[in-house]
Amino acid sequence: MNSSTDSNQLYSAIAKFYDFGLWIFGYKLAVNYFIGLLPFKKTDAFKVLDAGCGTGLYTFALLKRFPHATINAFDLNTNMTEMMKNIVERRDLGNRVKVFTGDITKSLPLEWDQFDLIMTGGVLEYVNPS
Fold first, then answer.
1. Most exposed among 6, 7, 31, 130, judged by the fewest C-beta atoms under 10 Å?
2. Which residue pairs, CB below 8 angstroms and at least 24 apart, start in 87-96?
3. Residue 97 parent element (H or E)
4. What backbone phi and psi angles, to 5 degrees, belong to 68?
5. Intervals of the chain under pLDDT 70
6. What is the reported pTM?
7. How many CB atoms lie within 10 A of CB 24?
8. Dihedral of alpha carbons 100, 89, 67, 120, sign
9. Contact 123/52 with Cβ under 8 angstroms?
10. Backbone phi, psi, residue 125, to 5°
């Protein structure tokens, strides 16, 4: 088994507790700080790709601060994306967020020039730079 498969299995196992862990360890505060540094006005409408979205921590923080942003979000782990889809549905955000399962190391069904911002949080350590 390779490390990518091991990581995917680990994230599947912890998916239900993932957001709580991020809150406990203060990661949500760091994300809100980062989102606050983005060079957009609150009223700007812009398109975002959240690559490695997990359960949507960056996506939901960005949507809260920028109510006119739209986001395509994906993650390799199906459990994480399903949790995020449920949150999107519960919050009635389907017109602003599209969530799908995808692998950052593979071709995706997207046009890269369609985005004003591409976010990655906690994903690049799983990508082989060679």
1. 130
2. 87/55, 87/56, 87/60, 88/56, 93/63, 96/63, 96/69, 96/70, 96/71
3. strand 97-101
4. -105, 5
5. 1-27, 124-127, 129-130
6. 0.78
7. 10
8. negative
9. yes
10. -70, -10
